[in-house]
Write the structure tokens for this entry.
Amino acid sequence: MAEDTAARLEERHINGFVLERLWKLADDSVTYSERDSLRLARLCCRIAFRLGADELRARSFSRLGSALRLANRLDHAESALKIALSAAPAHVKGDVLRRRAVLRMYQGRFGDAHQDAENALEKTSGVEYARALEVSGAAYYYRGLFRDSIQQFGRCLDETHPDDGRYCNAIQNYASSLAKGTDDDREEALELLEVVRTRLKPRHKMARAKLWWTIGLLHSRLGDEVAAWRALDTARRSLVALQAAPEVAAIIADLARVSPRPMAIRQFCYEAGELFTGRHPLRKSLRALARAKKDVIPKAAVALREKAGRLVACPAL
């Protein structure tokens, strides 16, 4: 798709309006095709260089950074965001800082992520402000500051219009934070996630997988092992279909912690191992979990979850 678009756009009348449309396509395609998102972001960068304006380069390279992050090419994402930040005018820096904050979470640098998110809040407004609140809430969440994350995610929900494509994300994030509270809070969270489920479209495959993941973890917190396993396995199968290898490893660890079923866990680990290439750091942890006896499975699962959690941002209740 991106190559066809590039061919049609290799004309002299390309302008900023066309680039803005491509930015939106790049952002929207993240939810259903990481490959298209990366191709579109690269196309945006080429066009931005042709047009020559700093703001266009900053916004294009910030999207390239996000696309590279989702492709787990974190060093390249760092380089792209460095270019974006150096080119960004004052009114664009907030969006670039927000995107860098997300990268910092993928890198496991949650303190730096929080600082970038707070700086982004000071420099944004409107829709970008709501998205900065979302990242700020996530930074609090992954640092274990759950009351602060509930506050930020709640503010994000208030600032996000129901017609906005990220409204479902806002509800899911708020629900994840509520899950850290009382059982009543968790019941409220499950009700919110039902709202999300009815709003998701078929193309939102990753969002749907993470929705089931969060539902499964909520059921686990409420003590319903059967419902938890069913929801988590639904999410696992979706993630395998998406070939999201680190996420698959993380959710297998969650399944093992919810209910240590040696035969099922062993099969899941072998299936997941086929998604990795070369000497990936998670392959050894998957093998250790696959070979673990029933009484050792929880300990091996925790080790796998910790390693996977450093590579990807995923639900963690």
Summary: The mean pLDDT is 86. The two ends are 38 Å apart (CA to CA). Residues 201-317 form one domain. The chain has 17 helices and no strands.
